[in-house]
Each structure stands twice: as C-alpha cells, then as structure tokens.
Amino acid sequence: MSRSIGALGITWLITCAAHAQSTPSRDRAPAPPTGTAIIKGRVIDAQTGIGLARARVRLQGPASNRPPVVTDDTGAFKLTDVPAGSVFIGVDRSGYMSARYPDIGKTIRAIFRSLTVANGQVLEGVNILLYRGSAIAGRIVDANGEPAEFVQIQVLRIPTSGHGKPQPRGSGSTNDLGEFRIPRLEPGSYLLRAQGRNTTAGDDPSDAQSLPTYYPSVLSIDDAQPITIERGQTASGIEIMLLDGLSSVVSGIVVDAKGQPLSMGTYVNARAISEFSDMVAGGSAVRSDGTFRMKLPPGDYNLEVQSTRAGVIGRPGPDDQQFGRLRISVGGAPLSDLTIVLGSGATMSGKLVFDGDSPLPPNPEQIMVGVGPPPFGSMCQSDRGTAGADGSFRVQGIVGTCIVRVTGNMGRWNVKSVTQGDADLMDRPVTFDPGQQLRNVQVVLTDKRTELALNVVDDRGVATREYVAIVFSADKTKWNDMSRYLRLYVPQPPASTPPAAPFRGTTDLRLAPLERRDLVAGLPPGEYYVVVLTDIAPDDARDPSILERLAAGATRVSLTTDRAPVDITVRRVEPRD
C-alpha cells in the first residue's frame, strides 16, 4: 500500500541513509552508555617519543557522544566509566594526523579490530602514537622556466593494488615563487596534476597557454610518475614544468533572463572538465556591454557566471542571485557569438510516499530530501529546502551537477526509488540548469528489504566468522565508489566479555533476530555476486578490475523483497593477486 504523508513535516537532507533505528527527539540527546572499566595511557609523538600535552582523547563507538578528555603535560590520559565490550579510542591534536587505537590497519578486518574491555577492568599502558601528516612539496614553473603563480595542484592517490582509478586526496595552489605544499596526506603513492590559471586576455597576441600537466611534466596520466611517501614523511624538491599548447579565442555575451546584456562587475570562469574534479582554468571579466573574451587551450569547459543583486548583505537568498552555465569544447578554431543566459538557481519539488503497511517512522519530520555533490567532480550547491504538512518538499537555488539524496530517521523504512515520470534520478548525477523547475519528483520509501543470510565455512568446512564478505551487483555499471549495489560485511569477532547488546556485524545486522546467521540486509533487489575472503584492502574491495576477477569464482544470488532471507553457504577463500 502506498501512502503519502499527511500532517507531517519534511525538511531538507544531503546524505543517503537507510535502516536507521529510532532515536529520541532532537531536544534531548541520548545518554551515552556507561560502565565501570578504566583505560589509562599516554599520547606520544611517534618520531621523538615525547608525550604530547593537550591532545583530545575520546571513546569511539556506542559511547562516542561523551566529551573527550585532555592529556596532561606528560601526555597521560584516563578514561573512566567505560562500558564493557568493544571500543575504539580516537585522538586529535593540532599539527598531527588524527589517530585511532587500535591502529587502523591496511586491510578491512584490521580496520575493524577493536579493544575489548570488561566491567571493572583497569587497562593500563595504552600508548597511542601520533604522526605528523605526510606532505608533498615542490615548485611549478612555466614553459620558460619562470615561477608559475596561482597554479592549482591536485593530489591523486593510487589504490594500494596499483589498479583502478586514482582518487583525489588533496589540493593546493602555488605562491608567487611557484612553490606549493600539500599537507596531511596518508602514506601511499600519489600522482600530481597541475592546472595553470590562464589569465591571458582575449586580445593578447600570444597563442600559447599552459595545459594540465602531470608530474614529471607529461600530459597523459598514463605517463605520470608516482610519488611514494611514508608516514610522517615529506617528499620535497618536486618540480613540474607546465607544458604549453595553442590556445583559441572564446568570446560571447552574458544576458539576463529577459535577454538584456549584463552590466560590468561580473566574471566568467572557465572550469576545465576532468574525470577527477573540475578546476578553474581561466576566465574573463564581463565588459559594460555584457561581452566577454578569453583564450583557452584545447579541452572541455563549463563557462560559469554568478551574479548577486546589488545591496545584498550576508548570505544571499534564492532571489538574490542569478547563475549562468554553458558547456563548450575548445579545439583549434575560435569560438565566438556564445550566449550565456542567467537565471535563478534551479528548483526541485515533489512528494514523499510510503509504500508499505508498517507504522510511519516515529519522527518523520527528520526525513529530509535534497541534493549533494557527486563523489568526485562537479560543483553542487543549493539553499535549504522547505516542506509541507502533506509531505511535499521543495529545494531552491540548486546549481551544478548533483546527486539527489534522501536521509533521516526512517526506522525500518528505506529509499526504494526517486523518480520524475519515467526518469530514474537515483544513484546518478543530475545537471541542473539555471531557472530549471524539476517538478513532481516522487521519493518512495518502502518497509520491505532484501536479506541475505551467510553461513561461512573455511577450507576444512568448519564454520567461521573471521572473514570479509563482498556482495556486489552482477551489473558492472553499478561498480562505483558510492554504489548502493556494493556492500562489504565484516562480522565482529566475539568478545571475551560480550556487551549487553552485542554488535554482531554491520548496522544492518542489528535489525536482524539474533538467532539468524550473519545477515546482509537492505541491498536493492537484483542479481548479485557473493565472495567471502580471509581479508582484503579497502581500495581493492571496490576496484572494478578486482571485482571482475572475483566474479569468476563467486556465488550468484537473486535478492528480492518478496520472500524470506536468501540463505547460502559460502566457502572462505584467500584473495589472489
């Protein structure tokens, strides 16, 4: 049965969640669980061995919302009233990378390794090492060897397997000496990409402009040389000479929604489009007659304009700003007579519908609908949305390429679909044009879910809970970083003194009856592969090339919401290179 909300408020949201358990109202935060255990230790500089004062130490896990304690002059700390069971300790201090105890390992099971305490236990001698962040530092010069100022630097981390797509991990820009330093990096191997901001005027006689260049001064990412850094290490002396290419004149006019030229005082940014993230590569001021003229090297760009109404103080409202956006491809010939039309930010509106017979969530006003940026790539922004008592929602001021997201305290309800007519808006980027009205968006929540019960045995046929399960769609197009169709499952090792409400796996498992086997719940219906490994690195578990190799020996299952949990027995295997 489908039910629209009546007399319920809906507010804006920016992230996607499902299967959240009931929580108290916003005005009263739940009290953190307490116990009688005590943990004592020190926070130490990993390189000097000196205790660090003023480090903030806190419990992570069920007791994470209690205040932190601060280390004394010797780096010592004492955590009291620690609840029995599995806990983590988190530490933060200015100038150091955040740390966790037990230390976060390089594999998934190592990441889930926790500290187990019993009621009344006093655990002493817990030494937590803090490291300075790793960094990459160097210098960018132009094709003539002169320091290049305002160059944008992007750091791309190579997956530990050496395969798969590098992921953005940091950025920065050069100073007037062409120098840069990208701090707070984790140990690993990285690629550097430099994008010069071309400020050459459209009437400049020079036809050469810098191109996006990888270290060590190559144009192709396939030819880029990795930079490997250890924990706490700084890789210095890195130099990139920007490579030049022939530029083309790009010119046109900016007009408002009525077709009138925009007055001067506005700027057109040329944002280079790349597979990693879009970076501003050039631009031009808008003249008094609304025209603009710039030079750009070959490539794909979004020309972006943002204009704020005169006299606005503070954060602009939806009616105070206008936006323009035009995608272009620059080759060898000039691009002229372009027109960028300004309009207000896009608007998305629609209704929330419950498809099922379960009671509505206890706090439906906490369910929110909105937009957020894709994992990596284009800019996305919006104003805070509004909601109606009938379950309608409205989000204004949307600019850029965004992903529609739904989250909140939904109890057993989870998102089934987000559609507009026949168009599926879920799990894919949506480009919002200025002034666009995306109406009649329907967000359907369901109280039905898929369930996969795992019975895992080792190579001798003996039941085991020491494994990592990967459940991933049989459709390769759904193998991406933020996919709902890929799930990792790690059972928590049994504690010597189990807590009152044992945590037997992922969040989904908390919703399952305790007599069931390890349960993976809430995946979208469809065909899936199931692989169970002794362990695997996090990057490898989402690497499409590795998933394709694992699929060859996987167990295939069909998950639906119309029947009891799919119950399978799977043999644990060692991952192969």
Write structural notes for this entry.
There is one protein chain. With 577 residues, the chain is mainly beta. It folds into 5 domains: 2-21 and 345-446, no CATH class; 37-119, Immunoglobulin-like (Sandwich); 134-245, Carboxypeptidase-like, regulatory domain (Immunoglobulin-like), CATH 2.60.40.1120; 249-341, Carboxypeptidase-like, regulatory domain (Immunoglobulin-like, Sandwich), CATH 2.60.40; 451-571, Immunoglobulin-like. It is built from 3 helices and 42 strands. The strands form 10 sheets. Strands 1, 27, 28, 29, 30, 31, 32, 33, 34 and 35 form a 10-stranded mixed sheet that branches. It is globular. It starts with a strand and ends in a 6-residue tail after the last strand. The model is unreliable at 3-29 and 495-516 (pLDDT under 50).
Detail the topology: elements first, then pairings:
Blueprint (H helix, E strand, L loop, with lengths): L1 E3 L32 E9 L10 E5 L8 E2 L5 E7 L2 E8 L6 E3 L6 H4 L3 E3 L4 E9 L3 E8 L10 E6 L9 E7 L5 E7 L2 E8 L12 E3 L2 E2 L12 E3 L4 E8 L2 E3 L1 E8 L11 E6 L6 E7 L5 E6 L2 E10 L12 E10 L4 E7 L4 E10 L12 E5 L7 E2 L4 E2 L4 E16 L6 E7 L2 E2 L5 E3 L4 E10 L4 E7 L10 E6 L12 E4 L28 E4 L4 E8 L4 H4 L2 H8 L3 E5 L6 E6 L6
Parallel strand pairs: 2-9, 10-18, 20-26, 27-35, 36-42
Antiparallel strand pairs: 1-27, 2-5, 3-4, 3-6, 6-7, 6-8, 10-13, 11-12, 11-14, 14-16, 14-17, 15-19, 20-23, 21-22, 21-24, 24-25, 27-31, 28-31, 29-31, 30-31, 31-34, 32-33, 32-35, 36-39, 37-38, 37-40, 40-41
Task: Write a concise synopsis of the structure shown.
This protein is mainly β.
Contiguous uncertain segments of 5+ residues: 3-29, 495-516
* Biggest sheet features: 10 strands, mixed
Strand content: 35-45%
What is the average of the pLDDT values?
A: 83
Radius of gyration (CA) equals 27 Å
